[in-house]
What does this fold into?
Amino acid sequence: MLSREENELLTRVGPGTPMGALMRRYWMPVLFSHQLDKPDGEPKRVRVLCEDLVAFRDSDGRIGLIDEACPHRTASMFFGRNEDCGLRCVYHGIKFDVEGNCVDVPCLPPGTAENQINAVKKNMKIKAYPCAEAGGVIWAYMGPADLKPELPDLEWMRVGDDQKFPTRHIQECNWLQGLEGGYDAPHLTFLHSGTAEESRRIVPSFYEVVPMDFGFVVGTGRDFGGDEIMWNINVMAMPFHKIISSQPHAAHMWMPIDDENTMLYSIDFQPDRPFTEEELARSKDFHGIHTENLPGTDIAIRNKANDYLIDRQLQAGGDSYTGMRGLGIQDCAVQESMGPIADRTKEHLLIGDTAIAQIRKLLLQTLKDMEAGKPLPGTDPSSFRGVRSARYEAPRGTVFLDEVDDRIRVAVDA
It folds into this structure.
């Protein structure tokens, strides 16, 4: 279990917190590109790492991400007019560009001297974060300018729009609960499948967590009694990216909205070809089941407020282990049931939680490395270029460490 102090370190992400400072050293996904679909279109509210912001695409197609509060009288910039390469506050007409510069102050009295106008503009600068687009996602960097890394270079970001199916929805809990759930191997055979008796026979017997220069890999081995062990490798790239061993390939990002809410991005993708119509239909059906959102929101229809529309008759009849439809909904239900921020001092970890314990240790060590000024894993995108999760069989007795690097690397163009 974690101490109360360690739990606070790993879960609090606001300005001035250690984990918040660590998160700000990486690029954050804030929107899909299609959510700001045209120049001078409507602004969008964005909450990330406990900060309330507004995103907009200006007349030249550039992305701005600025403080929601206008620095004049703190009115919301969400209501602003997006026009002529800037967002104009409707309260007094003061206008800001994508870099946060104040470019117009029409509320000053006629005849105000130019030097006075320039002084007001200089003092009126609004907080703004640099943004970039890649992989159909708008990314923001919120950390020190001199430490800004290159954009991440994950495999799904390189494929065309016809090779992926992206969705996102809100989880009503801390980001670490989502991340840990993503690497909890034993739950797959219980929460998402049949009876306890059926599931106990296929619980993993071997657990490996290997630090990498991009984060870590988690290997789980299942022993079915033959000459080989079935290995499943999932990849974690800092700070919250998971590359999943599945078909189609898939990726998750648990982006912290604040301490008690998370935006889960999910991307199904095919690395080498477009989705077939059947594959796309299956992905749409699968994600529609568990992440279809209430109109105009990122809140899943099956959510905490309605107990995820659990069907007790379905559960009792044996047709569903949980009575909740959809793998993602089942994950959200148990992770959110732990509370907005899980109290990890109350846990009693088992052998199947080996990956969870190691992930926490690695995150705590990364916080110490940041404080010591050491290089951080995953800030060099070349470290995880061409990295892919894997499933394979290996002869009993094969050393996992001897094979893992070769198993997760694929050749890609520079």
